[in-house]
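Listing S7. Sequence submitted for prediction.
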Amino acid sequence: MKAVVLEKLREAVNEWVRDHGIEATLVEVKASGIAIGVHILVVARRGFEHWYWAEREGDLFRFLRARFNGNNDFMITRLETMTEEQYEKYAEVEV
């Protein structure tokens, strides 16, 4: 996976975070290690507590799809948005 692709994705995720007034403590965009897969994680101190997880993840996915429509350089294989409390509780759980 090209570093420039990951950086463009990271910039887009950070833009989404700013646009929604989210106080993020962690924004992680990394190659999954398999082909063109990408894992995205956003952990927030504030901004997610009254937003159902499926809605916020769906919103971020739609934002990224609109931004990178037709780009075949990556495929989102994991996308998670969590509050700090959720991250602390579930970050160590293997899926």
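Caption to Listing S7: primary sequence and predicted structure tokens for the chain studied. Helices lie at 3-19, 53-67, 84-90. The first helix runs from residue 3 to 19.
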